[in-house]
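Fold this: Transmembrane channel-like protein
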Amino acid sequence: MAQPLDFVLDVPETPGDQGQEPSPYDESEVHDSFHQLIQEQSRWVAEEGLELQQREPGDPGRGHETLLGPEGAPVHSMATLRILASMPSRTIGRSRGAIISQYYNRTVRLRRRSGRPLLGDVVTRSARPSLRLYDLELDPMAQEEEEKRNLLVKELQGLSAAQRDHMLRGMPLSLGEKRGLREKSQTPHGKRRGQPGRGGLFSCCSRLRYACVLALHSLGLALLSGLHALTPWRYALKRIGGQFGSSVLSYFLFLKTLVAFNALLLLPLLAFVVGVQAAFPPDPGPGPRPTCTGLEFLTGAGCFTHTVMYYGYYSNATLNQPCGQPLEGGQCRPRAGGLPYNMPLAYLFTVGVAFFITCITLVYSMAHAFGESYRVGSTSGVHAITVFCSWDYKVTQKRASRLQHDNIRTRLKELLAEWQLRQSTRSLCGRLQQAAVLGLVWLLCLGTVSGCAAAVHAFSEFVIQGPVAAGQEVALLALPVVVCLLNLGAPYLYRGLAALEPQDSPVLEVYVAICRNLVLKMVILGVLCYHWLGRRVGALQDQCWEDFVGQELYRFVVLDFLFTLLDTLFGELAWRVISEKKTKTRRKPEFDIARNVLELIYGQTLTWLGVLFSPLLPAVQIVKLLLLFQVKKTSLLANCQAPRRPWLSSHMSTVFLSLLCFPSFLGAAVFLCYAVWQVKPSSMCGPFRSLDTMYRAGTAWVRHLEAAGPRLSWLPWVHRHLVENTFFIFLLSALLLAVIYFNIQVVRGQRKVICLLKEQISHEGEDKIFLINKLHSIYEKKERKEGEERSRAGSTQEAAPLALLAEEGDTW
């Protein structure tokens, strides 16, 4: 932090200041003294014919330079120092006496508001302590501080116990001083209650009550600390950030964000769909139940099929009641006195509301991350701020202090690397060569994407033509294995091609790798979506195709996790072992941020695609992310090294959330909307059996409400104008985009305002220096004139006796 100027504030008091101390009500006059002095000195300058002119930078002949003392501090006159000491910025918060006086005035106002008797009858207004000139140099007397402390203790005694505790907690004093004030401010009645043997039963009850309160408080703190300790990222994030920098840390922060999104998606599904259906299970169908062999954890089929895991298990009736006469569309009508819980409506609206909440949360998180990462202001003084203001002096443990030391060191490396990057430039020929190489590499990458998409499409057609027989569920893993192999091998090919195009900025290198991997994974997911809703629906008309799509997405999620583990094992551990044992270079691999982040986005997209067909898929994704966090953290600390070119990832979180929102979430929302509005559900299973589309369940419910009576006529109107009308959906999308746009504009406006405020602060500082120098010069001229007048008066007084002696000699 910037330290104030070191002024010698040993100012002698004038005769008018002795004997009386200004009251708090007169402090506004003290704060106006600087303005009054400027006006007074301006009149003196006008009388002398001088003019205050603004100094030009670099002109030593104009203005007055501030004199420097023996230690480099400016030396001002006593009057200037007195004015500077009376400024508002130098009267509060610098001494313990000022703090005590400040809280004394607060207790006075608090007692006045509460109607308690004041100490004004005992202490006069002029004798109350003031905030003026209470500084360590101006008020060195311990006796005056003790008097102020006694006044504060008297005021604290007049407050209630709750108000007294609240006031003491807010005081910026040490714990010992607060404890002393608390003991002194206790009333004699309260002290007698606390003494043993004098309160009898009342003292025992009070001590028991305080013991219970303290025990409950300690139990609550223990529970909070236990819950905090259960989180896997309690200490790991600080260690990763200190050892590997903010770039690698952004991956783990993004993983933590995905856990929160999946928990938010899972909670309404558990509350309104899965939990209700588990409480009222449907009648099991005829035939034996399949037995669990353990292979179901990979395939998702077998004994998992007829559970709440998949769409086909859920009923199309009002729960807990047998069917009466069916409604339009084949839904069951509950008998009289049935439970009014329509499972098709609950299933459809819960998934829709969960997606809507996720969308709002995702947009808000993206806007918040944008405001945090693109923070306004320049970075001119960020190096000094990091060096002098980053240390947390509350850290006392050796482990925490070493971790904080690593964080500051890594932060300085990233800042210096970013500064060096801004200083370096490339010639025109170098830029043209880089552009040509970049275009060639992009053509190769796009060709790889096209080949992968064609391979996935061809293999999916081959899988459709060869149906899997019962008992051969292992063959269902063929398509997920092929897709996972392509997703695993193509990023390594991109990484090899990236070596041909050396980028000046490591940030740009990561962004380019993210774009290439994103194009690959989105194209493959597009081919798979066509395979599921375009080809599988037609091939499985007589079966429950929703269960098959849910199982397929479950297999993709599980195998994606297994291949990530294999990649971590052979791509990082094996590389480290080979480099240490064979090459003797001890060169560990770097953490591939782009590939790992795109794996997270790919897995989250699979979860959003399958939540309609497998409501418990977010729970599987949460378990996967937690295990992945532990695996990646362990592999990072043991097998990887920090980036050789450190770089500051100030915008990475915003980029990750943007990619998660627009290509991933938007694509999943389009997929599910198409499945709800256009695809015919299977007639064998699920809550929407025998309906033309899943959306027909809502329209049938609206017609039923219209026939129920005029009291519920507003619900069909809402459904007709807000749900069926596409204009409302487009309007909502436009509002979301407008919110993002306005947030961007607000951040840009804040950047401009802060730049203007910094310029204003700089100009005001120059103005203050100019005024102080002018006042200093004026005071020197005044003192020089007074000295000349005194010397002239002294010479006159010395000449007068000589003249008298001469006159007496003449007379004689």
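The radius of gyration is 39 Å. The chain is about 65% helix and 0% strand.
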